[in-house]
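Progress report, Aim 2. The chain analyzed during this reporting quarter is listed below.
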Amino acid sequence: MTALTLSTAAAPGLRADAIVIGVAKGAAGPVVAPGAEAVDKAYDGKLAGVLETLGASGAEGELTKLPAPAGFKAPLVVAVGLGTEPGTKDEDTGYAAEALRRAAGVAARALTGSRKAAFALPVDSPGAVEAIGEGVLLGAYSFDTYKENGGQAKGARAKNGKAPLAEATLLGGKPRDAAHKGAVARAVAVSEELNRARDLINMPPNDLTPAIFAGIAQAAAKEHGIKAQVLDDKALTRGGYGGILGVGGGSAATPRLVKLTYTHPKAEKHLAYVGKGITYDSGGISLKPAGHNETMKCDMSGAAAVFAAVVAAARLGLEVNVTGWLALAENMPSGSAVRPGDVLRMYSGKTVEVLNTDAEGRLVLADALWAASLESPDAIVDVATLTGAMMLALGSRTFGVMANDDAFRTALHEAADEVGEPAWPMPLPEHLRKGMESTVADIANMGERMGGGLVAGLFLREFVGEGITWAHLDIAGPAFNEGGPFGYTPKGGTGSAVRTLVRLAELTAAGDLG
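Predicted structure tokens for the chain:
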């Protein structure tokens, strides 16, 4: 991953491949953002005019390259758009963290193949340092493992591509300031784990079976002082985990339930995170149609997010106990696969009539939710690429938030907004529960077609222990980006919800959630 350093050096004398500056949309044209004063001075204070002549407006995501002025040791200036210039209202304290994060990500992507870049973006607080650092580290991400020469020595170039930006120096950051060093440390820990989640999501399903995923989780747990427990198919059978076994029964790659336990000696609260980990989803007997199978390696994005969040919490030493549950299975059609019409007895003892085997995520989550409930945590959050209906409702960049507690749903929505992850609160309408009534079982795994994302949430609620605060994040839209990269978001796996889960753990550790 890109090395991140802080420096108080002046931009002109810094040896680098490029100097990155910010430009914003002002009332009368582009405005050079704070942090780039030395660069602007070298252009005789006319840098904004030069950028405007080159077509720059300061719009978010816009990028303009121009030769560095005489006397600079870096040959290139990269101006990246920050969006509208902050106004003068009392509550307006400068550039938003997300604007800095996205701008840094755009620049980092544009500098692929460079050895070193200096980022002279607005740094007025440790929060700005962290945002820029995250943007750089997430924006520079690339997945080259399966390209020729990819995944070899650090800095190695794939045959047909370039290595990511090797080093980024944040100008204006104070290398001896504890708050600034802490901001960099947090950015590195969260970004490294989020990028680990992206790697897992991008891995082809022949190389990421439930057993392999479980092994990766065990290795990371050992490295970071996390307790790991893995239930294989035999242990799942003995325990009566009918949902996970039913979904995984059609595949030669047997299912797993992974429990990751991070504890802190001073913790007073306990969070449980539950992730859907369908390492490949064919739809099972209810086979997906052509054109809907190609990206189904991403159906384990929820488990990847939970895994990354637990490890990040451990690396940050948060004073909260966090347990992660990874419900891992491969959903395949075969003679041993669960059929429409089958009835499964879940780990909770409740029976489920399977009407559609492509509604499998809620089945594996149901078992894991009940397992998490038996430990009586203060709150449970499940994360899943659960329904296409949520994509129809919220699009490809926003995840839905449902909960059995309005205040908790609001807190999660606010945490997501704080870290720059688009989310939206969704209801759990009671009248939709009737559609899941079954004549042969306690509940069916399908209900009304309209509002299908909400129906799935209501199904999951049935498997949360009584009196436990619970929320469900449906990340079906933002988990996998099939379009072009934007901001710090790459094409492919995104690591959606990792930062929200980490922020929730931080707020809980600080006692800010009650």
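The radius of gyration is 24 Å. The mean pLDDT is 95. These observations will guide the mutagenesis work planned for the next reporting period.
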